């Protein structure tokens, strides 16, 4: 399961269990293989095989057996996320969080899903504020909070997000965390038009995105236009000198 999973062999064992004509161990025995366990394992196996529609079906079967189980709702949410059914994934994680309101993992997964869709500003604000309050020095929670602030269209909170990212880069981060902070801060600065100093912000954004690339970050489709514009600007300034 952890080091070298073999989903094909695991599925074979579950099929053998399903084919048994009778089961001699009662359901309340500690060694019993319960229907909920089988449904959970089938969902995991289907995900490992990349069969996400089957994973959703298995997660739904698990919920029929244990409709009040927060972990079962989270498993459905994850299967839906992997199959790009994001609206349904959000609803499943909301239900998981409703049944386990203190679970930071479910809250974090819901935040990541909400960041991919517009119109969730109030919910994102509430969730990230709660996550940060529970772990105020966590780089992961600080990044999520900053992402929510940048996205919030109810008021302009980009300055607060920029301050969070800058404070993060003064901490000792993992390479992945530093790369994400550099990328997000660079994009925030590129889009920010405050204080009448856009040139300074663009210079800083270019330095940050170069650092992001040095850390192994990819210039994907969402970042490509920003990067190309900053590179062209830097090349032009290098050839012509800074404007007077």
Q: Top keywords for this entry?
A:
single chain; 244 residues; mainly alpha; 12 helices
Quick overview of this protein structure:
This protein has 244 residues and is an all-alpha fold. Helix content is 70%, strand content 0%.
Describe the secondary-structure layout:
Elements lengths: L6 H13 L15 H14 L3 H14 L4 H13 L3 H14 L4 H11 L6 H14 L4 H13 L6 H11 L6 H17 L6 H17 L6 H20 L4
Describe it.
The chain has helices at residues 7-19, 35-48, 52-65, 70-82, 86-99, 104-114, 121-134, 139-151, 158-168, 175-191, 198-214, 221-240. It is mainly alpha-helical. Helix 5 runs antiparallel to helix 6 (104-114), helix 8 (139-151) packs antiparallel against helix 9 (158-168) and helix 11 crosses helix 12 (221-240). The chain is elongated, with a radius of gyration of 23 Å.
Strand tally: 0
Oligomer: single chain
Order of helices and strands: HHHHHHHHHHHH
Which stretches of 5+ consecutive residues score pLDDT under 50? none
- Range of strand content: under 5%
Task: Characterize the main sheet.
Answer: none
Judged by helices, strands and strand pairing, the structural class is mainly alpha
Termini separation comes to 63 Å
- Helix-residue proportion: over 70%
Rg: 23 Å
Shape: elongated
> What's the average pLDDT?
87
């Amino acid at each position: 399961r952890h080091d070298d999973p073999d989903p094909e062999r695991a599925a074979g064992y579950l099929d053998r269990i399903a084919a048994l004509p009778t089961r001699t161990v009662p359901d309340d025995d500690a060694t019993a293989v319960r229907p909920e366990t089988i449904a959970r394992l089938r969902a995991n196996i289907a995900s490992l095989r990349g069969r996400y529609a089957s994973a959703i079906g298995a997660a739904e079967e698990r919920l029929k057996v244990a409709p009040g189980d927060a972990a079962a709702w989270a498993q459905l949410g994850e299967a839906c996320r992997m199959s790009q059914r994001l609206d349904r994934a959000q609803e499943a994680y909301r239900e998981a969080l409703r049944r386990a309101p203190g679970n930071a993992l479910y809250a974090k997964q819901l935040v990541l899903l909400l960041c991919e869709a517009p119109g969730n500003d109030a919910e994102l604000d509430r969730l990230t504020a709660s996550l940060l309050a529970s772990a105020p020095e966590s780089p992961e929670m600080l990044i999520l909070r900053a992402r929510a602030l940048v996205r919030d269209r109810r008021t302009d909170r980009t300055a607060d997000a920029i301050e969070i990212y800058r404070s993060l880069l003064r901490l000792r981060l993992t390479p992945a965390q530093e790369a994400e902070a550099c990328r997000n801060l660079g994009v925030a600065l590129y889009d920010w038009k405050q204080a009448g100093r856009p040139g300074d912000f663009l210079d800083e954004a270019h330095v940050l995105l170069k650092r992001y690339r040095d850390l192994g970050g990819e210039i994907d489709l969402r970042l490509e236009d920003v990067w190309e514009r900053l590179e062209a600007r830097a090349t032009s300034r290098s050839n012509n000198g800074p404007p007077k």
